[in-house]
Amino acid sequence: LMEQQPGFVDAAMSNLVVCRFFASRAADMHAELSSSLAQLESGHAQYGSPATAAALSEGRGLVALREQDALRAVDYLHYAAAQWQALGHPYDQLRALVALGRALRQVGAVGEARAALDQALSLVEALAAQLDAAELKAAFLNSPLLQELHRAIAALSATA
């Protein structure tokens, strides 16, 4: 499928980026968030690949988190993280694990949240080890995703 439609994964990931953006913004962006999720749903309906399933599940998890439905978010984000791992996409898995850790903390599953965030940290170490250039490694280690991971760990530590 990827050879037949080379842009479909890029389109799904672009839609997921948009969904993540709107999920992190003020509540008045609900229409935009719903529209970005609809794009992910449409892409998955059209292609039905494991990558679009993972992106859609992650998007649904982000929407559930935004709607304060952490229990529903846990299911979606757990599936997304497992799918990204099965697909061999560690950066995408890392991103889903960070959101999963936040959702688990919100439902009071502190041990599971710590396990998800520890797994995310292990992925960070593995990904960083692949970067030879010091500037590139520093940029990765200071990226917004890793800042989000550190905030999630700090929030978890504050509740423990």
Write a brief caption for the model.
81% of the residues lie in helices and 0% in strands.
Keywords:
160 residues; single chain; 81% helix; 0% strand
Report on the architecture of this protein:
- The protein has 160 residues and is an all-alpha fold.
- The chain is 81% helix and 0% strand.
- The chain has helices at residues 8-23, 30-47, 50-66, 70-87, 90-106, 110-129, 134-141, 144-159.
- The longest helix is centred in the C-terminal third of the chain and has 20 residues, at 110-129.
- It is globular, with a radius of gyration of 16 Å.
- Mean pLDDT is 87; it is low at 1-5.
Structural class: mainly alpha
- Helical content class: over 70%
* CA(first)-CA(last) distance: 46 Å
- Compute the average pLDDT: 87
Helices and strands, in order, run as HHHHHHHH
Q: Count of DSSP E strands? A: 0
Strand content: under 5%
Main beta sheet, described? none
Number of helices: 8
How large, in whole angstroms, is the Cα Rg?
Answer: 16 Å
Regions with little confidence, pLDDT below 50 for 5+ residues: 1-5
Q: Outline, from the CA principal axes?
A: globular
Per-chain topology:
Elements: H1 8-23, H2 30-47, H3 50-66, H4 70-87, H5 90-106, H6 110-129, H7 134-141, H8 144-159
